[in-house]
Write a structure and sequence with these properties.
There is one protein chain. It contains ten helices and no strands. The longest helix is centred in the last third of the chain and has 38 residues. By secondary structure, the chain is an all-alpha fold. It has a domain of 165 residues. Helix content is 73%, strand content 0%. 40% of the residues are buried. Its main location: membrane.
């Protein structure tokens, strides 16, 4: 059962920002961005060239992309509930749990930056949903499969957000963080489906700078982990509350 009480406040805002940025970086990761056009075309039951040239084909792809995002969001929300419930069970040792979560996030960030590589995170595993292209239900199933099995691109960043959600020790607030992660990952899919011809140049530029994007995402995770480890993440939340007292009325 989701807990009641204050949901949105200054303490949650930085974590929400980190979650949505993490979703965007997941979309830009090396094994997601390059396959987005053919993946979207397959879900819509059209070819990439049809998706580029025909408005009707893009509308069909957009509907499929919407159900795909709903599928992956379902998995992320369930994970958010599970991990934040675990954090709530450990409420008595929450301070140590936050420190441990911060350390884990720093390690994952260092992996992305390239300080060292963690072998099992460099293994790619994709769940196969079978031949499901061309239907809304099939796109939803593909979204479920994508969220469950697409690593290492989703794995390290998702693990960091799950650690952040668990540290909230609130099922509702942890689920909100995973919802924002799903938004960060899902909205770019919808934008590409709707505006594919106009975004081809942008996507090509991103592919050329993939390594730099990965390092930036790693630096973001490492910084968040360090702030959690030292207590500065909570301090930043209190600073926000002092600077913007109206945030205290959220919830």
């Amino acid at each position: 059962m989701l807990d009641t009480g204050i949901i949105f406040d200054a303490a949650l805002l930085p974590a929400m920002l980190v979650a949505i940025l993490a979703g965007i970086f997941s979309f830009l990761s090396p094994c997601v961005l390059p396959v987005v056009p053919p993946y979207l075309a397959y879900m819509g039951g059209v070819s990439v060239s049809e998706m580029e040239q025909a408005a009707a084909a893009r509308r069909r792809v957009l509907i499929s992309a919407l159900f795909f995002v709903l599928g992956l969001s379902t998995v992320f929300l369930l994970l958010g509930i599970a991990f934040s419930a675990m954090g709530r069970m450990l409420l008595q040792v929450q301070e140590w749990f936050v420190i441990g979560a911060g350390a884990v996030i720093m390690i994952l960030g260092a992996h992305f930056v390239g300080v060292f590589r963690i072998g099992f995170l460099d293994r790619e595993m994709r769940a196969d949903a079978g031949d499901r292209g061309g239907s809304a239900f099939g796109a939803y199933l593909l979204g479920l499969a994508f969220a469950f099995g697409w690593t290492p691109c989703l794995g390290p960043i998702l693990a960091a957000i799950l650690s952040l959600a668990a540290s909230e020790a609130s099922v509702t607030r942890g689920t909100v963080l995973l919802a924002f992660y799903a938004l960060g990952l899902g909205i770019p899919f919808l934008l590409v489906a709707a505006f594919f011809p106009r975004l081809r140049g942008v996507m090509a530029w991103m592919k050329r700078h993939m390594e730099r994007i990965e390092r930036i995402s790693g630096l973001l995770l490492w910084t968040v982990g360090l702030m959690m480890l030292t207590g500065q993440f909570a301090a930043f939340s209190y600073w926000l509350l002092e600077q913007f007292p109206s945030l205290a009325t959220f919830g």
